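Hi again,

Forgot to attach this to my earlier email, sorry! This is the prediction with 6-O-phosphono-beta-D-glucopyranose bound. I've pasted everything inline since the attachment limit keeps bouncing my files.
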Amino acid sequence: MSSQIIPVEPFDYVVFGGSGDLAERKLLPALYHRQIEGQFSEPTRIIGASRSALSNEEYRKFADAALKEHLKKGEYDEPEVKKFLARLFYVPVDARSDAGWDQLKKILDEGKDRVRAFYLAVAPGIFGDISQKIHDHKLITKQTRIVVEKPIGRDLASALQLNDTIGKVFKEEQIFRIDHYLGKETVQNLMALRFANALYEPLWNANHIDHVQITVAESVGLEGRAGYYDTAGALRDMVQNHILQLLCLTAMEIPSSMDSEAVRDEKLKVLRALKPINASNVEQATVRGQYRAGASSGGPVKGYLDELEGGVSNTETFVAIKAEIGNWRWAGVPFYIRTGKRLAGRMSEIVITFKPIPHNIFDQAAGRTVANQLIIRLQPDEGVKQSLMIKDPGPGGMRLRNVSLDMSFASAFNVRNPDAYERLLMDVIRSNQTLFMRRDEVEAAWEWVDPILKGWEEAGQQVQGYTAGTWGPSQAIALIERDGRTWHDDI
Ligand code: BG6
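Structure tokens for the complex follow:
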């Protein structure tokens, strides 16, 4: 089954940090896929920009190597790659001086009427400088957008500052704050599931739902990012953005339409309704962990401290939180969230556990009834599972069994699962902000996260060690088990 591809208008994508890691691993392969699927209109160009002194030819070689390395088997198609490389250009620019900017303007002026997108795949410390240079060199047209990657700040104050800096030059509707989790297929499916079916909505509240779990588990460690990660930690790196976005989509009211403002207004209300966690309750509501040496991804791995230069750190590589939303829909329904590096596997999912049946009519021989669960799996094996109690087949007596209606998207539809960036990069060109974070959302997320960070400091909450390759510290298991519930740990 193939979906219909609607081509976007011709565009120029300028990627600052064009020879960096994100461009290499994600952006160039994603754009290549959009070309293959016929989404580009001509003329369309991709312009790498960074401080490295590369020529167009050298940049094309870099992109070719990136495609060879990061495309899956069978996806590298010689004629398509040739066509793709021909649309690549490169301009060496310096964010902090005027070097290179006239050349960039000259190239961009060749396509004045095209959609123009500036992608800032660079450290947030130079977002301000780049925006200002874009403005000073008169590169902003009516059709211009800017895309910024996380981290957007490391607390509320720095996020406000960053948003102000970009906001001086660009209007809010031109600013695309990317959270790649929103581009994941299953995340969009969560909206389809909730809002295109009549089945769940009547049950989607505190009367019928016992609790929600959101897990984003990774088996990888620092992947060479110790410098950044040790100043961030799991709460800033994963919860403030990705996990809170998943929580919002799960908990929000039904927007009046898929219009970007309508959707983001509802997400914002959820963020604002999150009950505060601060010094007074942070120790009961959160667990911080840090991995020790162990085994992961099939081999022995070092502990976090052994991967750091100084070997001393209280940064969390794991966090678990019992969050609550103070509104009518969710009163008394805990949202248990957890994320960590070097866990037992790569697994991200949202699990909705419904309340148990109010009265059991079956006798003991039928066995225990298990509460229904809806499992929305982001990765691996994207899909949705609904568990139900059925009668064990056969002529014996009435025995009950818990089974899953399993819809794995890969096997249900014979299509390639696109990378999250593919959808989002094209939404920028289409100027569709629905899957991007609005300024007030980012700030509201920090408003909830800041008191947790301060609470940890005030309470002197230390990280708890966990062995690499496990599900995190035992305290995280206790966090949910003291409420009589358990983590859903099926990989
Ligand atoms: C990034 C984090 O935003 O998301 C990384 O900075 C993390 O630390 C990554 O590994 C996870 O993304 P995905 O798509 O692999 O789940």
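The chain has a mean pLDDT of 95. The domain at 182-419+438-481 is CATH 3.30.360.10 (Dihydrodipicolinate Reductase; domain 2).

That should be everything now.

G.
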